[in-house]
Amino acid sequence: MARQGVWQLQKLILNYCEFSGSSRGARVFVEKLWPEFTAGNPQLDATLHVHPGRHPNLTAQYLNGRVRTVGLRNEDPDEIMRQAILLRSSTGRKAALQVKTRQVSRNPSIQGPWTPAVQDALKQKQPLGA
Length: 130
Fold this sequence. Notes:
Layout: E1 2-3, E2 6-7, E3 9-16, H1 24-40, E4 45-50, E5 57-62, E6 67-71, H2 77-89, H3 116-124
Parallel strand pairs: 3-4
Antiparallel strand pairs: 1-2, 3-5, 5-6
């Protein structure tokens, strides 16, 4: 993602194995989609690393120094392209905490503040309204 005209992703590294089954999608991605991806992103230093016997992954290095790694084990080439675009489009910042909405129920809670009447009702085992 570009912030004030500067792309935040500096380097994208694709690690894969040339013979393992879990890297099959990564090998197809390298053959068919990688040249298209690198040509469409000239601002990006995109490199390939062969790691024999290891599962494939994408490693992204951002301007702020953060490094994000995404595992690509048994993924198809389209999913790998989606992950590469997602890494390119993110800023490299930590994910902010999501503000959760309060849970609303149709049935109001029977729990409430404690009062002396509650304790008396529990001792006598009778409803509070009586």
